[in-house]
Amino acid sequence: MKTPQLTPYLIFASTCREAMQFYQQCLGGQLDVQTFAGTPAAEHVPADAQDGVLHARLETENLVLFGSDAGSQPVTEGNNVALSLNCSSDEEIENYYAKLAEGGTVTMPLGDTFWSAKFAMFTDRFGINWMLNYDKNEAAQ
């Protein structure tokens, strides 16, 4: 089994697109941005946040940086950064979820998503925010 990729995930209060474009100008790379509008996540954010960023990915040869707007959630120092662990199998994501979430607070239980991935969000017992993702489409290739 290969080692999973650990990626910083930045959470913004409606400035994700501007911030990620700034980081792209500074660091270079390819920036991909998906808004809340037109996704199942849109029903969970107010109308004025529909054009907000659901998920952004900035990738260079040596760097991957994720970001999103918080939608209707407040952003405070401490909840604006998470560690995103990209897994390569059902077994791997289930194992990490069981271990890392133990004694913590689950925000989104491990389960299937509309983007064809298995995903979870939680804060571990030390106060660190985590996102676990297993992209089933990449595994099928």
UniProtKB/TrEMBL annotation:
Pfam assignment, any one: Glyoxalase
Top-level taxonomic group: Bacteria
Transmembrane segment boundaries: none
Residue stretches making up the Glyoxalase/fosfomycin resistance/dioxygenase domain: 8-132
Protein name: VOC family protein
Species the sequence originates in: Hymenobacter volaticus
